[in-house]
Amino acid sequence: MSSIDPRDVPLNNSAVIGLVSELSNWGRWGADDQRGTLNHIDDECRRRAATLVREGVVISCAWPLGGHGFHSPGSGPQRFMIRSGEGLFEEHSVPPIQPELAGRARLAAEYIGLRFHGLEITHIDALSHVFWDGRAYNDVPAASVSTESGATQLDVTHAGGIVTRGVLLDIAAQRGVEYLEPGTRVMPEDLEAAEERQGIRVGKGDAVLLRTGHGRRCQSLGFVDSGQADARSGWHVSCLRWLHERDVALIGNDGTNDAVPFEFSEMPLPVHTIGIVAMGLWLIDNCNLEDLAEICDRMNRYEFLFTLAPLLLVGATGSPANPLATF
Amino acid sequence: MSSIDPRDVPLNNSAVIGLVSELSNWGRWGADDQRGTLNHIDDECRRRAATLVREGVVISCAWPLGGHGFHSPGSGPQRFMIRSGEGLFEEHSVPPIQPELAGRARLAAEYIGLRFHGLEITHIDALSHVFWDGRAYNDVPAASVSTESGATQLDVTHAGGIVTRGVLLDIAAQRGVEYLEPGTRVMPEDLEAAEERQGIRVGKGDAVLLRTGHGRRCQSLGFVDSGQADARSGWHVSCLRWLHERDVALIGNDGTNDAVPFEFSEMPLPVHTIGIVAMGLWLIDNCNLEDLAEICDRMNRYEFLFTLAPLLLVGATGSPANPLATF
Amino acid sequence: MSSIDPRDVPLNNSAVIGLVSELSNWGRWGADDQRGTLNHIDDECRRRAATLVREGVVISCAWPLGGHGFHSPGSGPQRFMIRSGEGLFEEHSVPPIQPELAGRARLAAEYIGLRFHGLEITHIDALSHVFWDGRAYNDVPAASVSTESGATQLDVTHAGGIVTRGVLLDIAAQRGVEYLEPGTRVMPEDLEAAEERQGIRVGKGDAVLLRTGHGRRCQSLGFVDSGQADARSGWHVSCLRWLHERDVALIGNDGTNDAVPFEFSEMPLPVHTIGIVAMGLWLIDNCNLEDLAEICDRMNRYEFLFTLAPLLLVGATGSPANPLATF
Amino acid sequence: MSSIDPRDVPLNNSAVIGLVSELSNWGRWGADDQRGTLNHIDDECRRRAATLVREGVVISCAWPLGGHGFHSPGSGPQRFMIRSGEGLFEEHSVPPIQPELAGRARLAAEYIGLRFHGLEITHIDALSHVFWDGRAYNDVPAASVSTESGATQLDVTHAGGIVTRGVLLDIAAQRGVEYLEPGTRVMPEDLEAAEERQGIRVGKGDAVLLRTGHGRRCQSLGFVDSGQADARSGWHVSCLRWLHERDVALIGNDGTNDAVPFEFSEMPLPVHTIGIVAMGLWLIDNCNLEDLAEICDRMNRYEFLFTLAPLLLVGATGSPANPLATF
Fold it and tell me: Which of A185, B101, B240, C60 could form a disulfide with B96 if both were Cys (CB 3.0 to 4.6 A apart)?
């Protein structure tokens, strides 16, 4: 796709903006495509991914939602009980609205609500989440995401169910640190150093999970929800060329994929912007990679069956998610 | 586990209530167990399930959430855009609250809210969802599910990620009808007839999906949200003995597992009540089994890799879900 | 203000659109005015209104919110208890999150949510609720009402607290019917006939409440939430000239002020559009005028102290309200 | 009602608990009464209150809801636009769901949600808000406030519309300070000193607003939402005897009526507990008394027409409110 060696080109604001066209996948899978890089996953990817299940062990890559740990209250979720298990048979109790449930059997149920594109919620970004110059992936107009109707194109339902090979690239382990300093940008050479250390090569259709140790840092230091001011490590934008050349299907990270503070004033979130808008790359933010890293180390194996089943929220620009790694 | 032949015992109200103790798994996996029948899934289950991925095809067993099709507005979800793609660069536009997003790149994001234990939402019930005589599974007091704190025990996070063999039992196909008449109760002999027709035997750790055609009926006739008055087909309670003997890990259905209208006045929802409270059986309500049935027919294969990754909602009595079947 | 006799001009689409400029109050109270016709209420209006309190009787002009009567579930409100009074001291109860409330004293509290611009909710429309040709009242650009920040101009807080003379014009009583046929448009001559029958004259700063009997009809026939298709009676657009000449401060109605079905295809809601956008007229939709009409009849007095105190919702295009009439 | 001189009795935990019976109004207005001290307001109260409108000036006693000032995000409200004014006519715009609004006229509307019993939200507490020993006012069982159905008794709708004389007691002004030190408890003698300074006497049916300057302090120092740990001044519990003897109908305060930190470990919120449960006294928390104090000072008049019209939320334990003072 590109003959430029990414290591030779220092990136500035205008070079970064140039990546929008350089890495574009617009039209690659048809004018009406709404799946972007998920098209890299073919039946062969899924078949080979399943062969990676050898021990029969499954690991969740999501953080608990709404727990008291390092989750801030700002992003929710809200959980409101419609009916709890309190006082079921006490004197003066109000009978359930459904009369058939007024006997010895009772139900508890709740409403949940959340703004899932939050800093501490494991979620996937659909291709309608980001615009550049008023356009989303594949030249879809930004206005197609309306306040009243949501994302009338490129919503998260187009992901369906994702089954492919997952690869962990553990940069913190590769550098021998507990976590990268917040603000650190992981470079393509870091990815290749991790590949070499781990004896693996990222390829077509892979889900690549980048571990910087940000989650461990939050676990040990506590999490302060300080918005975009809160420094996080992540991919350097130049990694997008590398991911593009490797035909990667989706990426995840224990931060928000983009490092903070921002490097380029004219494009504060280049991984989100170029990844989602130009490449049609699906991103998973705020993964829990701690258990995954531990088992990878123990088994000395960094590839696994990766599954992600977003909620099929019609019109949504993403979904909270619980990505699974099965070994 | 039980030497009674379920075909020989006519069930009445008191016999059904007797199943609460007969089928009890309380204490079976320890006094503190919160996973119930998911304990049937061991590493070997997951390993063998992965070998069922031969074609590399993945099917979602969830209905779209919030679409206009046969989803009623009553159960939601609510989708409120925080920022859409409308009017990004028009004159007089209000700048984004995050100043770094006021340039050429813009984001859309939303709040979603839902009462997922609804009639048309594909969801999994956690073991805190139902009580009998003030107790949940494993003798947990109902009061442990509080209005303020939610399910302090038995919440949905205990499911983690579910990976096992899935088996479709297509009763509508077995009977040669498009769908069972609403209100029909599927009997153990139906399950065995389907096993025979399909050349498969349900066993330990399986996720068993029961297709009555209710989903197809809704698709063709339209869905009217008429609450519990709306007739649906489902498992007869006597199937729980069968599922118990086979050491099934979880069950799903294209209705709400329990048939409506109710058979036993003293226990209106016996599959939910005995299944969840006594057995610790996880239930998936309102599955979309239409695409699954079609591919099973085409491939003449009714077993597959089943994965279900609930949102890790702390304190929740279940989760909306997108169960996947991979062939 | 206008020398045209409204009775002489048959209104068609273009004549109605002409009212946008004919009745415009843009600039009348300054280029930055955000209060529109509420400017008609001066201290003298409030002083004289208070003198109407003679019996010391107060009447609410709001419907209950969220009751089971003729309120449809579609518009809410949602009420979710955060903590209820159930099971406070039962065995195994989960202690309150605030430890100081774990003793003999306990609190109940809830979350409420609603889409108040609904068909059955008594609410006031702020001047940011409607646009014509991309402009709100006083030439404010529509884009000033943004998805993320709400109404950055013309929000409901500009109403502050409304205290003035209220006048009931009971058209149903004037015509001697229980309710006007749905779809009926009340004409200026009806207003004047009611004035004559009631011995009152509407004037500067008044809050004029128009009773068509729609509320009584809903009470007796039940309410079906069929959206805009549901016929309702209301003001004919030509009444706006009359209200404009009389310097009325705000209007209310037991329907939604505009009659349904619509009369003019190019401006379906002319009372809302010309009233709010051109005149800066505040509207109260879905008032409960049944108790009010009864007491007016009994006392043979159709003027009273009117108070309306909207919630001071920053950025909101209106507020649910409980308007009071004191005699 | 009581011949004890409150100044003579030092209050300890058990003496405070004794006030529950001493100040009880249970049964006073009938076994089914749900209005408590609002029964003190009779027609004569409303008539005389209206005569206090002399200047014709109206003042809101509410803080803006959801503004950026000293409102913390924790208590909301949430405001989600259903349709905003952005991009109404731009290319590719998604048409409104209501087709008749796709022309030159457009609407903006929103959903609002809030937990109104918050620290910074002006709201009224209904008599179902607090329990003591499992009982609410008038011996209503706490269990009558259920998670599913809300307050089936004593909900906020029983307030209807409140119209009576309002009296400001400005303790900060009386002591010559900008605000009382957080944690200060106002004593009955402070009330009487304020009465004397202001030349007024609190009486039957009054709405008494107690100004400690807490609002001004928040305005000048900023507000930090630190929950119950955040010190606030308020009424000393012994004032309840004074309010009881005077037949006061409702009270309000620029804090949360109860002072923080708590004085009595066994009854942390005695003003709420004894006031609401025993007396049936309606409380308004978090009033904005700054504008009111300024106009009272300027006019040298501390009585006015007081109106409060809660939302008629069926089943709610209170309501956000915008109390008005008219002079």
Answer: B101
